[in-house]
Write a structure and sequence with these properties.
alpha+beta
Length: about 280
């Protein structure tokens, strides 16, 4: 007697590309953007495809507020055009990639005669903002800001809510680090414009702080300064390692300051912290 059998069930084959570096051509990148409109994609100058996840609600809210401030200022002055995070720029003709700042602005005369409605903008913006989200690593964002600077962006802001810092990149000048600012003057590029960081909700708790709450003892200040130097060199530190550093005695803190430049990654720092010292 013949018996019928069901076709064998196959387990879907999944490919883990979480640690892969994907390269595509500019034409392939454009096709990906057309067929995946819900994804935020970027292409580096070396042809590496960057896929950015959707922003969490808090980041999306802050980004809208940042964009609104630039847009409202531009509506009053009519000095140019402001663009949001869905806008793509094409820098391939000048040795760059295809990038999408969270906020950008271009002076009016530089847009004259350029069709932008149905393609990426082939003009380097005068001003950009990048807002670090909870899932963003700091070093790639810093590299992106340096790339903007290399391409000719006159002023760029990297807003880092996690570390309560803003990095200011001006054309032809070293990066300026602002600690926990309430506002940032952008007057040298956007005449009369000051970005209100508190109003944008970047660190809303700042409104409720009293001056007494901001005062640190000299010992606490020494710990925080060294922590920020280490984060600038190594990137994000784990909460556990931050706690270990804040608990160091003054003599150990001096030893850590001497050893700072010897570390190349957070693991070397952790090994140092866990090694008993005389």
């Amino acid at each position: 007697m013949n018996t019928s059998t069901s076709p064998p069930k196959h387990t879907p084959l999944l490919m883990d590309v979480s640690n892969a570096v994907l390269h595509v051509t500019p034409a392939q990148f454009d096709e990906l953007c057309i067929h995946n409109p819900d994804l935020r994609l970027e292409l580096t100058k070396d042809g590496e495809l960057i896929v950015m996840p959707p922003a969490f609600g808090g980041t999306g809210k802050r980004n809208v507020r940042l964009s609104a401030q630039v847009t409202n200022w531009n509506d009053r002055t009519e000095l140019g055009e402001a663009f949001d995070s869905s806008t793509g720029y094409d820098f391939m003709a000048i040795g760059g990639g295809k990038l999408s700042p969270d906020v950008s602005w271009i002076e009016k005369s530089r847009l004259e005669g350029t069709e932008i409605d149905d393609k990426f903008i082939p003009i380097v913006p005068d001003f950009v903002i990048e807002l670090r989200s909870a899932s963003d690593n700091l070093k790639p964002l810093q590299a992106k800001m340096l790339e903007y600077q290399r391409l000719g962006v006159r002023m760029g802001l990297l807003i880092n809510p996690k570390n309560r810092q803003v990095e200011v990149y001006r054309l032809g000048r070293p990066m300026e680090l602002l600690e926990y600012p309430r506002s940032i003057s952008c007057d040298d590029v956007l005449p009369g414009f000051t970005l209100d960081v508190v109003q944008a909700g970047i660190w809303p708790e700042q409104k409720a702080e009293t001056s007494a709450e901001k005062i640190l003892t000299p010992e606490q200040l020494a710990h925080e300064v060294l922590l920020r130097q280490l984060q600038r060199r190594l990137g994000d530190l784990s909460n556990q390692n931050q706690s270990r550093i804040r608990a160091l005695a003054p003599d150990r803190l001096l030893q850590l300051g001497d050893a700072l430049l010897d570390f190349n990654d957070p693991q070397e720092l952790e090994n140092w912290l866990l090694t008993p010292r005389d």
